[in-house]
Request: fold
Amino acid sequence: MNFDAIYSLSTENHGIVTYSAAIGLGVKGKDLARWVKIGRMLKLGHGVYRTTQYPFSEDDQFANAVALVGPKAYLCGESVLAYLRLSPSVDVRTLRVAVPVRCRRRLPQSIKVEIRSPKYQPMNYNGVMIEKPFDAIRSCVGTMMSDRLYDAAEEAYRTGKLFKEDFEQLSMEIRRHA
Reply:
């Protein structure tokens, strides 16, 4: 099998290719194993691979976390604020990832999985599925310092990630909780 198809697919997802996506391209499991063995790919976890030719970026940890949790996973809460660069004070050593149903995968300790209602509709932001900024900021009320959370909401509004009405609603909720 030609590696070019895998690389092309990986460029759309921070260098990441899942086993099921590779099989969908007609790649055999033995080809993936061979590419890992010769150093063309890294195995990140069960069914998740990364092409070694794809350049690393500071967003890779976020994309890797979502891919490792599974196909319906998305960043949530403070992890969204960190990914969108809305709050420099968020600790990214532990990433919060949400799923609509229980996740039974063995994951690194740096990934905290939360079960979220299917009513939350994630969005794709630069190739990474994330909770919508409004919902992410709202979920942080009571867990983050109010002034830092307000600054994050203000930055989201300033950069066009929140509508004015949403910013005003979040501002009231943050102030009410302070």
User: Anything to note?
Assistant: The chain has two domains: 3-51, 60-177. The first helix runs from residue 3 to 10.
